[in-house]
Amino acid sequence: MKIIIQKFGGTSVATEQSRLCVIAKILNAIKSDFTPIVVVSAMGRLGSPYATDTLLNFVEEAAGKMTLHETDMLLSCGELISAVTIATMLNNQGIQSQAFTGGQAGIITDNNHTEAELLRTKPKKLLEALDNGIIPIVAGFQGITINGEITTLGRGGSDTSASIIGVSVQAERIEIYTDVDGIMTADPRVCSRVHKVNKLSYNEVFQMADSGAKVIHPRAVEYAMRSDIPLIIKNTFSDDEGSAIMRSTFNFIHKMVTAIVHRLDRVQYSLEHSSVRLLAAIANKNISIDLINIFPNRILFTIDSKNQIKLEELLKEENCQFSKIDNCAKVTVVGESITGVPGIMARIATTLAKQDIRILQTADSLTTISCLIKEEELPRAINSLHEEFDL
Ligand code: ADP
Ligand code: ASP
Ligand code: MG
Questions:
Q1: What is the pLDDT of residues 109-127, one digit of tens each?
Q2: Which residue, 146, 389, 123, is CA-closest to 257?
Q3: Which atom number of ligand 2 is nearest to the Cα of residue 160?
Q4: Greatest CA separation for the chain
């Protein structure tokens, strides 16, 4: 049996028309002698009746703030509706199929609601279904604790479900179907000149996803990489062969820079205080810090804007003076071979200076260089860097 995972994202299952494209991809896989296990996201994006954000807004407006336990119970519904719909469409076409919750598919997690971590997998029921000629349609994004509580794996987590299941059944490959032809040199919604990259290493895509490229969840890349299972990003609505993500063989034809990615909703704080105790207090409030520079009398760092209120309450309690710049974005240049190459930072700084874009903060790693800028300057920054690095 040649098992493959086919994961379909929110836009792929959003409408009757798009669901027909999903069914066609599943039937194609069966025709090509593969045995698919399908993983689905909730239908559509905010505004669609069963999208994750629509469900969240509905209960918050109707009843107020939810506990994390209730949030997870609610969030699991969107993916379940998709799984039942796709399974029913297949059954009605004479293809035996069955919908599975994440728990039934054997995704066992800790009880860290809304950001649960995998503890172990129990794919027995999935494998039994396959042995009986039944195509499993698994609700993505969700798992179950050892006590039977429903959990979710973090926003965008249906990709993670696909990789977890792919590893648990030792699939030949994991196909992630979305609304673009593959991994692009920048987000096509922001940059007009993007093109698709055919082959990438796990590490490159992990860095892209971790730096904000929404096309795949970083954890999905991590799980696939650990078991060396190829990930393919494909378009539900085209026949393009997509982008293949695998172990680097150093013979991918690549430029030094692979992509320019970005993350929105950053706020930069400057604290007139340089206490390590304060950093510990910020961590205790579960506020994750993005870029950070510590000076003798000052700490400069960025956070996600959703944590602003929590952070400012804490700074008030601690009597800490601060200034902030909001509406920032982080733009990151990703390239597996930029490490140790002199002059890349200079090229980035010169390119942004030519566009009159002020760099508010920087950070680098072996494979990335990031600059914090004002959000309104992002399209100009991405387009000019895309041109500078000849992508
Ligand atoms: P899905 O609902 O299928 O999971 P997502 O919205 O999570 O889809 O991810 C697909 C989107 O990711 C694309 O529509 C695209 O705008 C965005 N994206 C951001 N960066 C990139 C990139 N470098 N390559 C391709 N897509 C990207
Ligand atoms: N529906 C979930 C979300 O919107 C999971 C996913 O789409 O991957 O975050
Ligand atoms: Mg997604």
A1: 999 999 999 999 999 999 9
A2: 389
A3: 8
A4: 70
Closest CA to 214 of 236, 189, 193: 189
Q: Cα dist. 8→12, 13, 156, 184, 187 in Å?
A: 6, 7, 12, 18, 19
Listed residue (186, 184, 109, 120) closest to 154, CA to CA? 109
Between the CA of 269 and the centroid of ligand 2 the distance, in Å, is 30
Atom of ligand 1 minimally distant from the CA of 183: 24
**pTM for the structure as a whole:** 0.94
Pick the residue whose CA is nearest to atom 4 on ligand 1. Answer: 9
- The tens digit of pLDDT for each residue in 346-365 reads 999 999 999 999 999 999 99
* Residues in the ligand 2 pocket, defined by CB under 6 Å: 9-10, 41-42, 52, 78, 140-141, 155-159
Residue 184 Cβ < 6 Å to ligand 1:
yes
Give the Å distance between the CA of 158 and the centre of ligand 2.
Answer: 6
CA–CA separation, 185 and 388 (whole Å)? 13
